Amino acid sequence: MNAQPHRCIIILTALFLLLSSMSNAAEVQEGGLRIVSPADGTVVEPGQPLRVMVEPEPGVTPIAVALISPSIFTFTQQPPFTFTVTFPPDAPLGPQTLVADGRDTRGRALRATITLDVEISRPVTSIRVEPVKIGFSSSWQEQLSVKGVFTDGQVRTITKSRETLYTSANAQVAKVSHEGLVEPVDNGSTTITVTYKDKSVTVPVKVELKKLSILMDIKPEDPRNVVNLDSRGRLPVAIFSTKNFDVSLIVLQTIRFGPKGARPLTMEEEDRDDRDDQGDRDEREKKEERRRTGRIRQHLEDINGDRLSDLLLFFRIQEIGLTCADKQATLTGFNLRGERITGTDSVLPSGPGCR
Hints:
Blueprint: H1 3-23, E1 33-37, E2 43-44, E3 49-56, E4 62-69, E5 72-76, E6 81-86, E7 94-104, E8 109-118, E9 124-130, E10 134-136, E11 142-143, E12 145-150, E13 155-157, E14 164-168, E15 174-176, E16 181-184, E17 188-196, E18 199-207, E19 210-213, E20 215-218, E21 226-228, E22 234-240, E23 250-257, H2 267-274, H3 281-293, E24 299-301, E25 310-316, H4 317-320, E26 328-335, E27 339-346, E28 348-350
Parallel strand pairs: 2-8, 10-18, 19-27, 21-28
Antiparallel strand pairs: 1-3, 3-6, 4-5, 4-7, 7-8, 9-12, 11-16, 12-13, 14-17, 15-16, 17-18, 20-22, 22-25, 23-26, 24-25, 26-27
Helix pairs in contact: 2-3
């Protein structure tokens, strides 16, 4: 029997299994493989060869292992699972996920992941930022895109480079994340300065939002709104519908609560906190689906008895940022009409140091 067709079948089968696991990446758990070199967080330069060593965990026999990143795909069937790869010269700078993916002889998915920091030592001649100016009137965020022109003539995306710094001249008008995501806070004007190495660009920002006050209730079951600052638990916050306001129009991803701008818990986070192994098979399957989606869980119910659906969200107390001196807490966000919603309720902090 000719061994060549048999080898081709093995290769095609391995590729099929690996591509199948890639298409279901959210469902594949870490395990079975280890990336032993380079170490997680290693800084690599685009255009330079990188040696990657992958080992199976004890008792695991891979039939093939692939090495995958946004700009890399290669695989091998035979141990040792060692690869020499290169990030392209024009690869975006910043964190890059490197995945070792495979299947073992029993058909089980194998996976190991590290994050590499792709950076370049070459000087930059200029940087450019898009958009060149930002106006907020009905939107709740704007992502800056930053590119650098380097001395080798190559244009590279540097938006997420660790050397790219973003600062807001007035964080009370607009704030910016370390990856260049700009969010409006209140009406007014400010500037965002983007700096990479020795080059800087300034982006003017103007915020002209429609504002809408909403009704909310912290801890609806507790009229005093006592919050134990030492608690590792969750704080419920109700947002009420009225004849002029529908909670179903709230963009949940924009909700921020308290001094530190806590975000509502996602379905996955709530399920993980609950650790509830009870329930029938259908409920367990629903929980697994929620874990895969990562969406914010919204509890819609008539809380105040006015026959309108209200919204109940949960926040981790340690992420809210309350102190003993706080007497109230504010929730902000946006709705689908582009209105900035704001609600405030009283709080009574408790715990050591609070009187």
